[in-house]
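User: Could you check the structure of this?
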Amino acid sequence: MSDPRTMAGSPVLHKKIQSRTKVKTGCATCRTRKVKCDENKPFCQKCVGTGRTCDGYDSLFRFCTSQSISNALSSSIKSSAGLQPIRPASSQITPQDIDLLNRYFSTKTIFGVRLGCDEEAQQALQSSLTDPLIRHAILSLKTLRENFETSGDTVGPIAQQTPSKHYGLQQYCMALGGLASNLSSLGPNGLNSALVCCQIFISIEQVRGNYAAMAQHIVQGLKIMHEYRARPTLVAANKLLPAHHDQLPFLDVFIIKVFIAPCKFADPPLAADVTGMAESAPLISPQQQLVASRGLRTIAPDVRIKLTRIATSALEFLNKVSLLKSAGDALQLLTKKASLLDSLEAWLINLESVHTDIRPLSLCFLRFFHQTLKVVLLGALDYSQDVDAELRMEINQLHDIAGDLGERVKAYNTRIITG
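Assistant: Sure, the predicted structure tokens are below.
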């Protein structure tokens, strides 16, 4: 009988052992088929070339698994051990519930602005009936927003840690941590949960004045939509891949709606126009007066008409992408996409020429909106290595603008309250 040690060192057995080594990279389809993947993004050509559906790669929504979130989640669970688990109060979603969540999606609604996000609010509330992560996220937004309105709470060193704010942050950490643990195997339900939570996280960070984190949620949510093909994608002149998952939340549409809602930035209750004629301010509630009296009208951008028109056209463009049936129609839409991007570039050039007439913080909000629109449009419809390279560059620019915006908001809050 042969010595087992000799057999273990034989080339034949060594080859067999190598063949059983698991490959951890590659698209989900190739891993399931146990074949080598060429790892092209977002869809591997081995799948596309053989007529298979490429199920994409592991989610890039990994930022919420960072050590800081893990630590926050750990401390949150310890400090909230006595809290009862969140359960839906009722299986009925009322119009009042929808209207309230629609209002909480943006702080601009404090000043009488309507977002037009009723559909997104209804979808989130309906999903919360069966999804505890979405319930945690909604409860966090509700608590932090109410705390903001009643106390005029801010971010940074001057912020006060009230019990309600602490509870709202606990719920936020629980939603983030729970979502992070589910991202390793995202099915249709998990994708819905991730994208709906991402919508709410964007609103939470707006309330908190943390625009760097807000941009992170925007970018990662858009990556999820792209990776899991929420809309048809043109991968070649004659190759249109249909949407891989039906009825996923369109995060990009939500983002544009939040930004597009018109609002005057930091106007005093009584303003004089250039002719010296006074304009009467609209009536606002006592809560709104409290916030305004503390100078916290800092996250309600003055969206200029031209940029608003481009954003409206972008919404129409995204809707047409969702309805695409042929590569020919997709090629025609590419012309519209190019036109929208050209319009954004022209708008930015014009902004640079008149920016001295715009308040610095308002200018920063406008640039943030512009850059977000650009990232949304670049990632829509078609994909190539050139597009991917440009998109990465624009995403980096968005992060830079968001960081600058956050610092300016903190400085503005500090100056108003202490000065």
